[in-house]
Request: fold
Amino acid sequence: MKMDLIILLALVGSAHSASHTFKASGFPLIVREGEDAILLCLLSPDTNAEEMEVRWYRELESLVHSYMIHRDVIEAQSEQYRGRTSLSREELKKGNVSLQLREVRSSDEGSYSCCVLSTGMQCAAEIQLKVVDSSFSVEVPVTLVSARVGDTVTLPCRLSPLSSAVLMEVRWFREGVKAPVYFYTLQKAMTSVQSEEYRDRTRLFMEELRNGNLSLQLDNTQTSDSGLYKCSVSYNLKEAEAVVELKVAGEFLSFFLSFFLSFFLSFFLSFTLFCFRQFLCLSL
Ligand SMILES: *[C@@H]1O[C@H](CO)[C@@H](O)[C@H](O)[C@H]1NC(C)=O
Ligand SMILES: *[C@@H]1O[C@H](CO)[C@@H](O)[C@H](O)[C@H]1NC(C)=O
Reply:
């Protein structure tokens, strides 16, 4: 282990003389315990890496995966990762040296670096792997959303702890409506089972799903859309849900109508009151 560290550090020192740069994801990768992770690392310009030596390290000391000219070198691999790592051979040809790590454990947390040895050893910036508990809940940051007729609104909802919901089943329901307002499963929207009333008016922020954002966008709101909405998530036989209320105020026109109506009503009332008083005075 120590040997690896020394070799690595020595070679990192000569990195400037080599010719590759890396594209590694700058964001921490958040994975639920027990799931598989792909630690992204691409060579730039894309070079066939099949003939190279590729190594993945954690904290630059534990050897996670080692590949050398068409084969994996498992002898040197840290015990903890035995049988859980692989590199895609097809992807290696395209300079994609991403690591596939199966059944992530909490002890896998840490910062990972991918390194290639061609003219010298070069390592990419570190990728943070965070492992969260396999249980989850759903939360709504605000419980009441107000809108006017014709608006586009976002009903907020997110997974807690924040982690990817791409593989989960996400359903939005409206109180009193049996069919879901929105239904996402197997990585796509199931419009066929969706409530007719909401067809073509609802969507999730698909790129945000990987950040655990389950918010629903609703177009062209109607006063009849007012009510309670339930954001529900299920995955691996676990379920969680949260409720948010939508209030859609009437149209501008009806606002005016009610304004004038109340104006005339109060005018009428004060007039009758006035007459009544006049009548009282006269009769006295
Ligand atoms: C790189 O390879 C991984 C599998 O090892 C794959 O999931 C990923 O999509 C690939 N990335 C690109 C940009 O080709
Ligand atoms: C979800 O993403 C949308 C679109 O980017 C954003 O407007 C909204 O605030 C996000 N909601 C939450 C709960 O993070």
